[in-house]
């Protein structure tokens, strides 16, 4: 006899199974309804001359995208030929603002057995179709009136000529269908391609050596292995770049130096010479005074008149000759008297 605990656990499992079944059933119903059970709907109307093949539940598509379904199809009671049947359509409310008010609706076949649907082509108006609005019906043209019989006869004659050539084997397609020459040529070309491929992958050719042997692989892998070894030696070096790659102290030192340089530049920019115009103006005034003094000296008689330059040059020459003569014969200038 099962215990009370087993009975309670069986009841819990039954409840959980029932809830899971209800969830699956609700999900299935939601999917079968097109995901629009809980979606708000708006009503639009369409008047058509007849409802052949159009029934309730038929889809309504705008530019190929389904936005609603036909709710009902009934007589409108109007004597106007194009407004004999009134079609009530339920459209998703969030998609209704995307349908222009001048859109045109047609009734087109949805399946091969004659099921119809409402096919809407978007218009160019900036005003959307309002709720309880009316779609404009665009009647299809009569196929017999729009068909050019002479052109259709020419197309049929061309198709008949192509089929006749195929049956008689006059074209390449006909030779392939009726005879065996094209098929044999195709088999021959396939055999030649296969032999060429086998010859290409032969171990005696370069391509075959590449596929069959590992020489090319070693040729590519050797530089990569050498590069890896060089990187390992660089990483494990005791001097040079090794400590810089392994020890972060040098990196931190360089980073601190860069920070100090940046701080120095910032302090220089914040200094009075750069931040204020007073020191720049004073320095500029001193420089202007120096330039003016040089200009006055240049315009003075000492530099403007060559006479002064000649006198100074003559005095310098006499001084030079006197010093030279004094060095060569000093007794001439040092004369002593004895008392």
Give structural notes.
- By secondary structure, this protein is of the alpha/beta class.
- The protein has five domains: about 1-30; about 40-140; about 150-180; about 215-270, no CATH class; about 270-320, no CATH class.
- The chain is built from 13 helices and seven strands.
- The protein has helices at about 5-30, 145, 150-170, 170-180, 180-200, 205-210, 215-235, 240-245, 250-270, 270-275, 280-300, 300-305, 305-330, and strands at about 40-50, 60, 65-75, 85-90, 105-110, 115-120, 135.
- It has a seven-stranded mixed β-barrel.
- The mean pLDDT is about 75.
Question: Mind sketching the topology for me?
Answer:
Elements: H1 4-32, E1 41-48, E2 59-62, E3 65-75, E4 85-92, E5 104-109, E6 116-121, E7 134-137, H2 143-146, H3 149-168, H4 172-178, H5 181-200, H6 206-212, H7 215-236, H8 242-246, H9 248-270, H10 272-275, H11 278-299, H12 301-304, H13 306-328
Parallel strand pairs: 1-7, 2-6, 5-7
Antiparallel strand pairs: 1-4, 2-3, 3-4, 5-6
Helix pairs in contact: 3-4
């Amino acid at each position: 006899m099962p215990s009370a605990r087993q009975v309670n656990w069986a009841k819990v499992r039954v409840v959980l199974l029932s809830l899971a079944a209800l969830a699956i059933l609700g999900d299935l119903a939601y999917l079968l309804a097109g995901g629009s059970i809980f979606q708000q709907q708006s009503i639009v109307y369409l008047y058509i001359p007849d409802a052949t093949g159009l029934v309730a539940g038929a889809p309504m598509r705008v530019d190929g995208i389904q936005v609603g379904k036909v709710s009902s199809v009934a007589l409108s009671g109007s004597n106007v030929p194009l407004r004999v049947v009134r079609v009530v359509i339920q459209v998703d409310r969030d998609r209704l603002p995307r349908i222009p008010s001048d859109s045109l609706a047609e009734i087109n076949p949805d399946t091969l057995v004659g099921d119809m649907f409402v096919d809407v082509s978007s218009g160019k108006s900036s005003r959307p179709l309002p709720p309880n609005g009316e779609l404009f019906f665009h009647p299809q043209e009569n196929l017999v009136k729009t068909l050019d019989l002479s052109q259709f006869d020419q197309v049929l004659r061309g198709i008949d000529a192509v089929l006749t050539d195929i049956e008689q084997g006059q074209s390449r397609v006909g030779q392939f269908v009726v005879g065996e020459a094209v098929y044999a040529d195709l088999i021959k070309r396939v055999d030649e391609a296969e032999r060429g491929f086998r010859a290409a992958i032969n171990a005696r050719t370069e391509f075959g050596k590449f596929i069959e042997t590992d020489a090319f692989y070693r040729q590519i892998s050797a530089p990569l292995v050498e590069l890896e070894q060089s990187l390992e030696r660089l990483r494990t070096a005791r001097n040079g770049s090794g400590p810089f790659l392994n020890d972060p102290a040098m990196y931190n030192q360089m980073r601190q130096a860069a920070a100090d340089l940046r701080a120095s530049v910032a302090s220089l920019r914040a200094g009075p010479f750069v931040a204020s115009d007073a020191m720049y103006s004073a320095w500029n005034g001193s420089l202007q005074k120096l330039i003016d003094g040089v200009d006055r000296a240049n315009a003075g008689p000492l530099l403007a008149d060559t006479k002064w330059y000649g006198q100074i040059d003559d005095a310098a020459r006499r001084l030079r000759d006197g010093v030279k003569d004094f060095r060569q014969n000093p007794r001439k200038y040092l004369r002593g008297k004895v008392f």
